[in-house]
Each structure stands twice: as C-alpha cells, then as structure tokens.
Design a protein that fits this description.
The protein is α/β, with parallel strands linked by helices and 413 residues long. 33% of the residues lie in helices and 21% in strands. An 8-stranded parallel β-sheet has the order 6-7-8-9-10-11-12-13. Strands 1, 2, 3, 4, 5, 14 and 15 form a 7-stranded mixed β-sheet that branches.
Length: 413
Amino acid sequence: MRDAVPSVARLPGVRVPTSVLADEDFGGQLQGDCLAGDLIIRDGRVAGLEPASTTPTRLVLPKFSEPHVHLDKCHTIDRMEGVGGGLAEAIEAQARERETWTEADIRARAGRGLQELLNAGCVAIRTHVDWGTPTDPAATPLAWDIIGELVEDLPDATVLQRAALTDVARMTEDDYAALCARQVSQADAVLGAFVLDQPNRREGILSTFRVAERIGTALDFHVDEGLEPGLDGLEMIADVALETGFQGPVLCGHACSLMNFEASDVRRIADKLAQTEISIAALPATNLYLQGRRKGTPDRRGITCIRELQEAGVNVVLGADNVCDAFCPLGSHDPLATLSLAALAAHLDPPFGSHLPMITTGARRALGLAPITVDGAAIGDLQLFDAPSVTAILSNGSSPRPLAEVLQGEQKW
C-alpha cells in the first residue's frame, strides 16, 4: 500500500454514469447509461477515461448530498408507545417525547445519524432543527447548539448546514423574527419555516423572505405536507419569490398537495418554480408513511409530482427526512435507499443512472453549493462501489469506499 497517490494514476475497469458528467467528451466506451474504461487521474484530479484494460466491474460516483433530514429527532421511535396516524398525531407524539431530551441524548442520537450519513457516502447535509422550546417559542433550542458542535469534528470538505424550522405564522411577529434571524445569522445557517394551513401564511412567507434577504441566508420551507384540499403554500412561495426578486437559494420540501391539482395547475406552479429556480425536495419515506391515511389500506401516494416538475425544468432532489421517529418509524440515512424507494413510489423508470443528480449534483445545487461532477473532480470528492451498475447499488445496498483510499491500495500506476 502506498501513502500517497502519484501525479498520474490509473484505476482499471470502472464505469461512470453519464448523468454525473459535465462533458460527454470524457473518453471510454458507452455501456448503457455509463461510460466505461480505465479512470485516469492527474495531480489528484480526474482527467478522463482510457480504453479498459480489464472488464469494467466498478462504479465511480460523486459523493452524495442529503438535502433534508432531522438529526434532532432521529432514533427516538423505540422510546414512544402507541405512535401512529398522520402528521398531526406525529407532531403531538414527538412533542411529548421531546420533553425527555438531554444534551447527552441529543448528542448521541444526532451523532449516530450523522455517522450513518457519512458511512453512506454523504459530504453535504442539511438538517432541520425545530425552533423554540415548550415554554419559549423564540428560544434557541438545545439541539441547535449541539449539532453546531458536531460540525467541528467533521472530516475536511464535509458540509453540515443547520436550518431553523420555525412556524411561518410566527415570522409575522417582529420580535420573534428578529431573534430567530440573529441566531441564524450568527451561525451562518439557513432560515426555514413550516407552511401548512395557517391563516396568515402569505404574510409569514413574505416576512421570511425579507428576513433572509436582510441577513443574506438561504431559505428552506416545509410546505403543503398533506393531501387535504386548500393547501396552496407552494405557489405562494413561488409568487413571493417573483415579487421580491430573492436571489438566494430556496428549497421547498414535501409539496404533497400538488397531487390534488389538475395537470394545468401543476404546470402553472411548476413554471413559476422553474422561473425562480426554487428546488423541490421529495421525501418519499416519511410522506408515504404519513399521508393518505384512511381506515383501510391507503390508495394515494403521499409524494409530490416528481416527474411533472422535472419536465418543467424544476430541480427535484430527494431526502431521507425523518428516520426512526414519530414521523417515520423506519427509514435510513442512505441516499441510495431513498432513491430506490422513490423509483418504486414515483415510477422513476430505468436507466436508473439518470436519476443520480437528485442525490448528487442537483442536491448540491439545492443546498446552494457548486455541483461536483466526476470529470475534473478531486479524488477526495469521489467514491467507488464494487458493483457494475446503478441498478446493482440500488438493489443490493452496496457500501461506498472513498476513491482516495482505493487509489492508495491500487498497484497499477
């Protein structure tokens, strides 16, 4: 084994999905949705593919991005009894359970979730933190500071963004909004809000945009998390973005209620989202579990209109959302598991490599980060799977290895 990668290195027998390349003139031979060959690295960066010296059996991908998780809540389900039902029941159950949280508990659970994300190959993560405490809605929660401390121990080049999750109705209160803005700004974090059926939700959305503009932060909304009629927050957000000309990145999670709209209405809303470059995070695990509940088996998918949004040019990404808590008693901090579930739930058809941007380049863009494609990437930004195709890693749950570590062990230079 060598301690460092030479100035020129060759990794034999790999495939690279074309969806994670910026330039098709990358070399190699087209095999399905991938280019295949020997990967050439010069001075620590990918230079291209040359003809394969051995049968391509491995897959090289950018490291993943997770745009929507809740590290403050994860791994609490086994401490609760009788959890079930829809969104309202989950909110109530988690609020009761939250009263038992201690600093050590939050640190252990959030740290566990964070390590699961790192093990799955994630290097860019956004976690939401419920704002306020039971006695003081404007208080900075304990989890906010603890997760902030976890950032200090992350590997180099790993990004962990915190998003303050506030009730959008409270953002109309000047004192509340000012306190929240100060904490978010000091932490160089993201301003987030929960938009459902609040009577003054448009005023709250407008206030949230104005605060974000003032402090220079990105925006992240939980919006229309339900299939009930009358949920229209997503279009309100797009309209306010157009009205204000907001330039920062905006990410909207859930948007389940798009399922209620006629095709022409979905197209109208999608066009506004594309015009304002608002990204949408589809969250299949939690939304499939919570939404569309009835006395018997559900007959509606609790997931947003992924394919229609993509056809309109909207950047749609995928997130794990809740993992093992009142909102989703199962789940996984693994973007590949999320993509696999989304493919089944939303009929995302093969070739599966075409959907990788939802957990790589597109997901980074949704987080306000520069996309990383394989061509020209530093080896530290890439990972290798011992599997020949995207279908294989989605089906078999393969674990990645950092490409830099693999290269140190390879003998062909």
